[in-house]
Amino acid sequence: MRIRHAAWADQFYPGTPEELRATISSYLQVEKHAFAARIIGIISPHAGYAYSGRTAAVAYRQIEGESYETVVLLAPSHGAYIEGVSAYHGDYYETPLGDVPVDVAAVQRLAAAAGNVHVGQKGHESQTDRAEHSLEVQLPFLQIVLDDFSIVPLVFHDYSWDNCQRLGDAIASTFAAATTLLVASSDLYHGQSYEECRRMDEATLASVENDSPEQFCRNAARQAVMACGAGPITVLKRVAEEWGASQPRVLARTNSADVTGVQRGYVVGYAAAVSVMLK
User: Fold this and answer.
1) Opening angle at CA 228, ends 225 and 230, nearest 5
2) pTM, whole model, 2 decimals?
3) Pairing state of beta strands 267-276 and 190-191?
C-alpha cells in the first residue's frame, strides 16, 4: 500500500485525534440550511483552522450526515509545478483521524477520460521541504461529517480555461451526481490591505455566484477576481453546469483580519459556498 502521510498535523490543525475531533465538532455548531435538493459541491478555505476553520465548517455542516460514495477533491498546488492535473496514485491519504481510502479505480477512469489528468505523486507527497496543504486540511472535516466514502484527490495550478474545462467535462461524464461530492479548496484575497480584501472578495464572490464558469475563469486570469483556488472553483462551476446544478451560493465569508482583530498587515479572505441540484 502507498499512503500519503499527514504533513500538516500540529501546524494547520490539531495533531491528536481527540483534539482534532473536538475542534471540528465545536466549529460545526452552526446552522444547517434546508435545501430543496442534493448538494453536489462545496467551496471551502484551506488556511490553518484557527483562521479559516469556522468558515470551512459552514460548508461542511451542510453535508453532515449525508451520503456520498465518492468525494472529488479539487485543490491548488502551491509548490509543485504540474502539467495538467495530478491525480494521486496511492491507496490512502492519512490524517490523525485515520486513513482515507483513495478510489483507485475511479482515478484510473478519470485519467482515461481526460487526457490532461496524470496519475502520480506530484503535488501530493512532499516536494523537497514543502508538502501541499490545500487538500490535506479538507480531509478531517470530511471524516467527521461523512461515513463510508472514498476520495479522488486532484491538485493543479494550470487555471487556463482549456485545462479547467477538460477536467470539469471529464468529471461530469465519469461520476454520477447522485453519489458524488465535489470539494473546491480555495482561499480568496491575499495581500496587505484590509479594505482591498473586502472589496476584492466582494467582486470574487459575486463572480462565483453569478458568472459562467468560463467568465469566472477569465476574470481570474485578468486578476479581476482573486482566489488561489480559482481553477478548482472553475471546475466545480463547470461540473454544476453539466449536471444541472446551481452555481455556488455563498453561505459565509470572513478574512484573517476579522478573525484576529488585527486590521493591518497581511490579510487573506475566506468563504464557504454550496452548489445544489436543480433537477
Assistant:
1) 60
2) 0.97
3) antiparallel
